[in-house]
Amino acid sequence: MTAVGIDAVEIWTGNLKLDLPGTFAPEKDEDPEKYTKGLGLNASSFPDSYEDIVTMGANAAHRLMERKGLDPDDIGRIDVATESAFDNSKPVSTYVAGCLEQVFEGDFHHANKGERKFACIAGTQSLDDAYNWIRAGRNRGRSALVIATDTALYARGDAGEATQGAGAVAMLISEDPDFVTLSTEQGYGSADETDFLKPNQQFPSVDGKRSVQVYLARMREALQDYEQVAGDVHPDDLAFIPFHTPFPGMVRKAGLLGYRHITRDTSFEDDLADEIGRQPRSEAFDTDEEFHDALREYMDALKDTDAYQEWYAETIDPTLTLSREVGNWYTGSVHIARISALKHALEAGRDMTGKQLLVGSYGSGAQAEIHSEIVQDGWEGEIEALNIDNQLEDRYDLSWADYEEVHDVHNHDMDVDVEEFTAPDSEFVFDGWGRMGERK
Ligand code: HMG
Question: Residue limits of the Hydroxymethylglutaryl-coenzyme A synthase N-terminal domain (predicted)?
Fold first, then answer.
């Protein structure tokens, strides 16, 4: 059976940066460590006034196609995964294709274009669609372009405001890929939930604390479901576990839960699933508070073991480096966690070829998916080609007044005049409706 997976990848970060301990915390009158230690974030990437999901997606895809020497004829499918779409009819992929056709010879007339939506998990669902399309033999030798692009903005004053972010990840899905192959085996945990949603609204309505519990419940179900088809997972078999990362503190919890599950630790008498999601707590505890205290005590004890700390430092922590600097990219988030881990491995001189990743994707609403990936021998070249460090360094550092202004510019309910800007060289820029994505 031909291997199918991610052949190449490129990232585009929003061109602005909001410093959380330095700028956000003082304005909110909060201890900076709430953000750096509690949530695990140093900064958010923010879109400039001339950036949106189309420009970021097109800029990432342009870089990817140029680097791989691809023409539109090489692409049989373009899927954009986003939860920041602005058009209820025309998919974002058509806007992105329009941008790319300005700079490449030929066009995407014979490519199937679409848009995927299921909160943050849509990026991984688009990978699945591409995988299935190739496996079904419908690709005619062509590759699929998958673009996960979002401006993950919250209303000002919302608890989620500190976790904002903006960026795009473009991925080329092909036969015999250079980067990673995807497993056929998948596990799902899926249930109708209303902790995070945007019904006809730009900014989400969020029950933040509950969203954390729902994430853990669905992720655990997905892991169990995955083991039904792939067999038991063992911690030593996994080089890294990139999880969906709304903020690194969330993944600290997911890592602990995953570790408890895959080491089959039974020292806690109750099943963790009873505490999270919709199921009732165990009858062994008289009150919720009693249960939560016992659970926290158990988790704290597990967290303090040498075995766990060593495993976390090797397997989970390296997946979080980029997220700490950019915040939540929604659909792109789990895909920058994978890149972050492999970038760490490259810098540490580790040979990753043939190593296994377990990838935990999640979308509110809510669904988790687990699959595994095997790193291919072109991984080093792919990671070396990324210029993510330069992109992060080049971001403009927003003052609080700048931040408020640019947040208003992106707020669809406000009619803010955008000051004339000097368009950056070699970027697609949003220049007003109807002239979207023009490349200067
Ligand atoms: P909050 O009220 O700002 O923060 O909300 P908190 O008071 O809960 O504190 C956060 C952590 O910082 C806690 O750690 C505190 O103890 C710690 P924990 O107990 O959880 O381990 N802390 C400190 N640590 C050190 N020094 C200090 C300090 N102060 C506090 N001085 C919340 C946090 C997550 C609720 C909020 O950020 C939020 O609503 N975020 C948006 C929703 C979200 O991201 N949910 C995550 C799961 S859902 C998901 O991932 C899907 C999503 O990506 C969307 C999609 O799928 O489309 C969001």
Answer: 4-175
